[in-house]
Amino acid sequence: MDAVTAPLFRMEGVSKRYGGVRALEEASLRVEAGRIHAVLGENGAGKSTLIKIMAGVVQADQGLMELDGRKVAFPTPKAANGAGIVCIFQELSLIPDLSVADNIAISDPPTRFGLIDGRAQRRLAEEALARAGAEDIHPMAPVKDLPLSRRQMVEIAKALARRPRILILDEATSALTAGDVAKVFAVLKRLRTEGLALLYISHRMHEIDELADECTVFRNGRNVATYKAGTKTGKEVVEMMIGREYSHVFPPKPAGRDRTTSAIEVRNLSWTNRLTDISFRASPGEIVGLGGLDGQGQRDLLLALFGVLKGLSGEILIDGRPAQIRSPRAAKGSRNGMALIPEDRKTEGLMLPMSVRDNLSLAALGTVSRFGVIDQVKEAKAVEEMVSLLAIRTAGTGISVGSLSGGNQQKVVIAKWLMITPRIILLNDPTRGIDVGTKQEIYQLLRRLADNGATILFYSTDYDELIGCCDRVLVMYDGAIIRTLEGADINEHMLISSALNIQTEGEARHA
Amino acid sequence: MGAAIIGFFNRMDRAVLAAFACIIALLLVGSLYSSSFLSPEYLLQQLQVASFLGLIATGMMLVVLLGQIDLSVPWVLTVGGMMSTAAAGWDAPWNLLAIPFGIFCGMALGFANGIGVAYLRVPSMIFTLGMNAVAQGLMVLRTGGFAPQDHATEAMRVLATGRLVLNIPNALFVWGIVGAVTIFVLTRTTFGRAVYAIGNRERAAYLSGLATQRTVLLAFTASGGLAASAGVLLAGYSTKAYQAMGDPYLLPAVAAVVLGGTNILGGRGSYLGTIAGVILITLLQSILSVMQINEAGRQLIYGAVIILMLLIYGRQRKQI
């Protein structure tokens, strides 16, 4: 605070309350030009609130903000943008039906005679995409046709098109593939040398190790420490974040499991041009990972197994007998006993305005009702059991699930499916954008479920997870399983090289 | 006791409270004009008239909760009225079927709506509008060229206008029973839970393994049946069925549902709110007609008041 030169941006004693909840308390932060500043903390630690205040989305209750040593206030996001603070939020903000160029220029499109100048807009978009290292995206492509990871690149280009001085990235890489992350990092490093200040928020520790110059750790709405990157070990950092001792992230894998019976067996499964001749089997007690680059058919495979996709060819056998699964309703039925934890909890997993109770019992309504009438006592009991089993932090089961933190929302999605006691659990990237503590609980839960005889099929974009959790990993490429990794073969090198479907050392390192 | 009342109000939606407040305000305004507005007889009469709208709004609410809309109400209602009076002309024992036959015809049209929306995935706004025209065509076809039997049966008249118990209109009992069943269905059954879930996010509901298509089909069938039963009652009320008898009911039905706090995009709303909305709309119409304002002025004020009330409390909250 008594530095001679004022930093580019400084906030001091900033507090924010939502109703009775203290989201941020006496927080302070200094951001220097030409540096990458990482902000760490569990979900609900106050990071998002901090960013929203910086970006003018919400107003602080008290405290002070300075830009170039001058006091500033941002009543609207537009004001913050005008001052050069641009934020890439965790939730994608693109409009699916508009083109990439339209989206990039959406807040301030170039105009001629009062009409949008399409050519200038396209030029602007091309330039921004190039700055973001995503030249391969066509500016005229509709955003809805892009996979999630490409959309995220558009999001970054959109932010760069606004010529920021401070760029805030909130979990901006959580949807990206390893290849894209490397590209984004190169871009971020270049921006740093150009003198931008970057505020980087991520749950992935190795990303922070690679990028950050300074780190600030938040816990329960306060900043608990600021330190130079590299001066603390990963273990120390995580303990600062969760405020308690942190032992094994991943539960130990049991050795030598019996694989003679198969709970699920897939034979020559194909679907349009997205899934090609997929065959595999998995036994009770096994956690089978789905690896590979993002968008190689892993999601389609899970949806196909769960009866969402129409027009499949091939065979699916459950407990050794052929199963016709035509809808999620059939998939979860007692004959198949399947559960799918979907990719996007906000649009596929939960009804945010509905209560925790209503969300939890939704998939299991059949088990707590008779002739279509819900047994409220039974329902309440089952819900309470789940809340305590997964340690869901909620002020009650009657409040809306949208008011919970991201990690707790994800727990609700998982708990909702555990209520039907599934025998086969399909998980579609279940830990995306949630905090370390919750992730750890989920890993342990998965292992416990497997030990109790469930078969788990687990798609993750995070290689650490696949390595730490899975007994086997099926690596997918272009809609087909190209390799199965087992035991010691499940390591980062093997995962990446098989994901890229290449063998040579040099190209594997490139990723 | 006091705490219990406060707790009750806290649990109630703000919109529902606002609707009830508007009802009281309307009654007070009316009583300035004429003291008879607060007489029990006038209020009972209003509730009797409200019962017809109440039945329609019940079906509309189910559909709106799903995030859909039923624009076929006017002519499905007419079908209900005209088909029941047609059945009234059948030979002796069969004319007893007048009421169920009218309702059945409405349910059939509602079922067709449900097939179109749930299985063929046509937007309900277009499909039900088309169904409205189809129903109209069918009714014109039926009456074209000759005068069909159009008189209501005694049972229909008694149901719509009679007062068998404690001087309370029978129609109000009908609405009361339908309302009680609806409240039970919405709050206590898996069907009700599915309706709210689909209205919030159909994809998440489908991925949760709910029978989404069947739920939508059922809701539209119920809406058709309820609109037709309102037609049956209205035919009994005015002793005959006639073309376009349902035309004045579409806007009031949608307005009553929305004024009662049900989210027009689906997923949120309570039946208590719909009750309030129905009474509110009925009172508004009654007061405007008692004040002897001409038709044009009445429409103007009626529309303006609905828009005004929506501005005050019907707007969607920005959150989520």
The whole-angstrom Rg of chain A is 24 Å
Q: Which regions of chain B are unreliable across 5 or more consecutive residues at pLDDT < 50?
A: none
How many helix segments of chain A? Answer: 18
**Helix/strand structural class of chain B:** mainly alpha
Secondary-structure arrangement, i.e. CATH architecture of the largest domain in chain A: 3-Layer(aba) Sandwich
Overall number of domains of chain A: 3
Poorly predicted parts of chain A: 504-511
Could you name the CATH topology of chain B? ABC transporter involved in vitamin B12 uptake, BtuC
Largest sheet of chain B: none
Radius of gyration of chain B, taken over Cα atoms and rounded to an integer in Å? 20 Å
By CATH reckoning, the class of the largest domain in chain A would read Alpha Beta
Strand content of chain A: 15-25%
Could you give a short description of this structure?
The complex is a heterodimer of chains A (511) and B (320). With 511 residues, chain A is of the alpha/beta class.
Written description of the protein model:
The complex is a heterodimer of chains A (511) and B (320). Chain A is of the alpha/beta class and 511 residues long. Helices cover 32% and strands 25% of the residues of chain A. Chain A has 3 domains: 9-242, 3-Layer(aba) Sandwich (Rossmann fold); 261-337 and 422-511, Rossmann fold; 349-421, no CATH class. In chain A, strands 6-9-10-3-11-12 form a 6-stranded mixed beta sheet, with helices on both faces. In chain A, strands 18-21-22-15-23-24 form a 6-stranded mixed beta sheet, with helices on both faces. In chain A, a hairpin with a 2-residue loop joins strand 23 (472-477) and strand 24 (480-486). Chain A is globular. Chain A starts with 8 loop residues before the first strand and ends with a helix. Chain B is mainly α and 320 residues long. Chain B has a single domain (20-314), classed as ABC transporter involved in vitamin B12 uptake, BtuC (Orthogonal Bundle), CATH 1.10.3470. Chain B starts with a helix and ends in a 6-residue tail after the last helix.
